[in-house]
Amino acid sequence: MTVNFNNRDPVYLQIVRYFKEQIVNGVLEPGEEIPSRRELANRMKVNPNTAQRAYKEMEEQGLIYTEKNHPSKITTDQQVLGNVRNELLVEAVDMFVTSVRSINVPVEELLDLVKEKYKANVDKEA
Amino acid sequence: MRNYLKLVNFEFNRVAKLFAVLLSFTFIVQVIGVIVQSKSYLNMADKKIYEEFMPKAQFLESFGHMSFFQIIRSVWFLGPIAICIAGVGFYIFLIWYRDWLGKNTFIYRLLMLPTTRLNIFYAKITTILIMTFGLVAFQLILLPVEILFMKTMVPEEFRSDMGVGELLTNMPELSIIIPGSFVELILYYGTGLLVVSVIFTAILMERSFRWKGIFAGLVYIAIASVIFILPLLLQEFVLNGYFYPVELLVLEIITGLIILAASIWMSRFLLTKKITV
Amino acid sequence: MIEVKAVEKKYGRKKILKGVSFTAKKGEITCLIGINGVGKTTILNAIMALTPINKGQILIDGKTLDKHTFEKITFIPDAITMLPHMTIAEAMEFMDDFYHCWNQERATELLGFFRLNQSDRISSLSKGNTAKVNLLLGLALDVDYVLMDEPFSGIDMFSREDIANVFTSHLIENRGVIITTHEVGDIEHLIDKVVLLDDGMVSKEFSAEEAREIEGKSVIDVMREVYQR
Fold first, then answer.
1. Residue C169 Cα, gap to closest chain A Cα (Å)
2. B28 and B122, same structural domain?
3. Nearest of A89, A59, A87 to residue A75 by alpha carbon
């Protein structure tokens, strides 16, 4: 659980984002217990107050839930989980589009290239 | 109180090595002195009586008996005492400065102890007193031992024996460190305590204000000294012996107590409000 | 809360602090940043009454410091606070002797945390281990506030990591911490609040997360703005 934080985004949001990625990747499963705030601070090398804030944010977004006297768990709410997937996807595509925009390429050509590259990447990993 | 005692214990342990060195130095040099002095007397007696055939009675008449007095008068005996006095005098300063100087900054710890800072002052002054009394007590124990040493070396007919008490009353030099009466003891050591408290205050002034503090400290020492001898000066030059000696003594004791109280008050103020690490 | 209010301090004729004010809360890590010689250490010394101030006031939980305050606040200076000939065990014993708030369990835990050997003499320790012993002696006190002067300066990389780990651990939790540094780089994520000192004054006091969230600036970005104005 090591994260390279950047210095310009709030650390607590970077932690939230890290959790979202882990959920979407399936590293964290719905209903899985997550570390305590203190443990998280320790492992991620962040201020315990920041870890606390990240958990609060995740609770507000419904990503995690806490029953009394139990460790917090990843939500099992399929709708929330779906939203997370969507959110990350849209965000990534947005970023891609912005950077590709400057090259001014026709969208069909771009899509073909994307398909080709995506396939090559999957093959390489397999 | 408990913290004060703990600090005294701690401060004394810090000086224990120096203290042990002073004790052993005194012991060794004084015993060597006894041997050297006795030997030289005996050598002389040998020479006069067996080589120059001087009758024993005549020898004793012209050279006298060997007494411990001769040993006490020698540098072998007084030297170590002077060194011990110098050592304690030196440590009066070192006991403070060692906490600030060099890589060691123990003063941080001392000043951050959850106890009144005046306890540091009390503990340090007590340590100086313990050292002083310790050295004096050791000398008192050492004297009869040394006398015994001389007795084993010099045959009885060449000796004129003196007890410790007799020696002390005949040695004004020694009566200052080993007073003859209780009043003298209070007087000498009271004055000593007073001097140390005034010096401590001056040191704390220097530690608080640095260069300006040296000046302030010297002024404080000067003022304290003047006030202390003021009754004597008045008696001598203004009042033409108005007071009886006993009255003068009481007056001096009161003056001393006032100066002591002022030094403690000033040190407390400096330690809590002005000291700087 | 530690409140530093309009504190002024002169060294000779030179005014080193010209009215410094800031607060440090319990449960937060407050970082005093400024170039060397700006008076960071002086501020910590002043809080602990280790040096007098010329003007202003310093309150700890609303009260001025007295002997009882030392059971509530501790200072870990960038210097050895024990006698060089003492062993770590003896230094711990000394602390235990004088402080009610000494927590032996925590001290033992810290020994392990820092991988220190109790029987080592203070004088034989490396710079990094000396700093760790200092930290141990301070953090094993059950105090509400901990002041640390340059805990990372002149220390090898691995010791830095060990010390940084303290800040993310329960050893610090719920305490108010003030640390000074002239190099904020690798502790940016560890601190809650930043107090920037410049020319004897507080030029900016801000929350590190807020600067990132509201202005999108890192602590160093803010410093650059303040110092290169």
1. 6
2. yes
3. A59
